[in-house]
């Protein structure tokens, strides 16, 4: 039996997440009543200039009669999953460390499918100026590192890099972490306001085109290919609408696999059409730099190690207690019915949990 979930106010206090209203998005109802939202309509938040796997699945016709209802753009992964936990949306996605932290707060949600990750095509790099004296982890002591969100993917990668280099927790604390909007990070690095900038996707590629910077390390070099974030759904939604949840998760899994096997140019062209058709005054230029969603396993299936890795990280940081999370309770593959082809070790050797369909 899962422990009693905290009430909404307790959850917000423990996770340190902001409310949907405070973040400026437009919430719609609660999971308990959904204020008349049809069962086949799933409310969600998007990202400007981006086509998420869920949006791609809908456009491909893979959601089996479901409709997605955009209620605004999110400000971060942690905010997005808080919205799902609070009932303002029906699913949200974030870095797995944020999902584990939410689980430690006993939020009534479960991770249901991976939606982004790291591979040789999609990764975050930690960049310094070409003339920077910073060349090793120890050189970062007393330096400023700019990233989009604290306590999420980029900071986890930084802590992992420092720990692997042998720095103690006390030494690692001397590395200053600064949250900056991604669009301002390259400029801050070039102006010397920060010593390291975390750059990804189009911002990374454009910065490299400008020249004058070099990589200190990147997360693919650090950990290889892995799924890094999951979509979560509220327990109440999963219990009341299992068929809709199954259609959603299976459709997203199909879309992820479609994006893998389809020529990149065709995927990008479809994404551009999706953004233009939804007419939200978005720039389609970033889509032309899209390479991969980075999800490691076929159909977006979740592996327990993709969560336990960050549970240990949070424990070392003191953000959660060791007995606050039980990994099998955090996620489920039960709603994913997309038949994944046997392609690689991860698919050929599923965990016992995956074989049981849970």
The CATH topology of the largest domain, please? Answer: D-Maltodextrin-Binding Protein, domain 2
The count of strands amounts to 10
Global outline: globular
CATH class of the largest domain: Alpha Beta
CATH architecture of the largest domain: 3-Layer(aba) Sandwich
Given as residue ranges, the uncertain stretches (5+ residues, pLDDT < 50) are: 1-32, 343-358
Number of domains: 2
Number of helices: 17
Percent helix, as a range, is 40-55%
Which structural class matches the secondary elements? alpha/beta
User: Average pLDDT across residues?
Assistant: 86
Strand content: 15-25%
Distance between the termini: 15 Å
Following the backbone from N to C, one meets helices and strands in this order, namely: HHEHEHEHEEEHHEHEHEHEHHHHHHH
Sheet with the most strands, sense and barrel status: 5 strands, mixed
CATH homologous superfamily name of the largest domain?
Periplasmic binding protein-like II
Strands side by side in the biggest sheet: 7-6-8-5-9
By oligomeric state, this entry counts as single chain
The radius of gyration is 20 Å
Protein model, in words:
The chain is α/β, with parallel strands linked by helices and 358 residues long. The protein folds into 2 domains: 8-118 and 225-355, 3-Layer(aba) Sandwich (D-Maltodextrin-Binding Protein, domain 2); 124-223, D-Maltodextrin-Binding Protein, domain 2, CATH 3.40.190.10. Helices cover 41% and strands 17% of the residues. The chain contains 17 helices and 10 strands. It has helices at residues 8-15, 20-23, 53-60, 77-86, 96-104, 153-164, 169-172, 182-190, 201-210, 219-223, 235-240, 242-261, 264-278, 305-317, 327-330, 345-348, 352-355; strands spanning 41-46, 67-73, 92-95, 109-118, 124-129, 144-147, 176-179, 196-200, 213-218, 226-234. The protein has a 5-stranded mixed beta sheet with strand order 7-6-8-5-9, sandwiched between helices. Residues 1-32 and 343-358 have low confidence and may be disordered.
């Amino acid at each position: 039996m899962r422990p009693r979930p905290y009430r909404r106010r307790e959850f917000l206090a423990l996770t340190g997440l902001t409310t949907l209203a405070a973040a400026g998005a437009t919430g719609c109802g609660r999971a308990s009543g959904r204020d008349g939202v049809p069962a086949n309509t799933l409310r969600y938040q998007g990202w400007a200039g981006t086509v998420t796997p869920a949006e791609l699945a809908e456009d491909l016709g893979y959601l089996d009669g479901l409709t997605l209802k955009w209620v605004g753009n999110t400000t971060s992964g942690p905010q997005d999953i808080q919205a799902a936990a609070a009932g303002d949306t029906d699913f949200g996605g974030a870095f797995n460390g944020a999902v584990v932290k939410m689980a430690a707060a006993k939020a009534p949600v479960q991770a249901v499918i991976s939606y982004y990750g790291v591979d040789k095509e999609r990764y975050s790099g930690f960049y310094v100026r070409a003339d920077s004296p910073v060349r090793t982890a120890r050189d970062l002591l007393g330096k400023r590192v700019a990233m989009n969100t604290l306590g999420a993917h980029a900071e986890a990668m930084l802590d992992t890099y420092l720990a692997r280099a042998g720095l103690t927790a006390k030494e690692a604390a001397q590395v200053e972490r600064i949250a900056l909007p991604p669009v301002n990070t390259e400029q801050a690095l070039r102006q010397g306001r920060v010593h390291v900038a975390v750059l990804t996707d189009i911002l990374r590629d454009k910065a490299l085109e400008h020249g004058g910077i070099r990589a200190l390390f990147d997360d693919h070099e650090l950990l290889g290919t892995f799924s890094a974030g999951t979509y979560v759904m509220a327990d109440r939604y999963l219990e009341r609408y299992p068929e809709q949840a199954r259609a959603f998760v299976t459709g997203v899994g199909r879309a992820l696999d479609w994006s893998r096997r389809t020529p990149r140019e065709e995927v990008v062209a479809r994404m551009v059409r999706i953004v233009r058709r939804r007419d939200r005054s978005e720039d389609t230029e970033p889509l032309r730099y899209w390479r991969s969603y980075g999800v490691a396993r076929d159909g977006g299936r979740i592996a327990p190690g993709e969560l336990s890795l960050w549970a240990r990280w949070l424990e070392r940081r003191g953000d959660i207690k060791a007995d606050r999370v039980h990994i099998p309770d955090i996620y489920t593959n039960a709603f994913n019915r997309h038949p994944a082809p046997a392609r690689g070790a991860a698919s050929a050797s599923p965990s016992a949990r995956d074989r049981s369909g849970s």
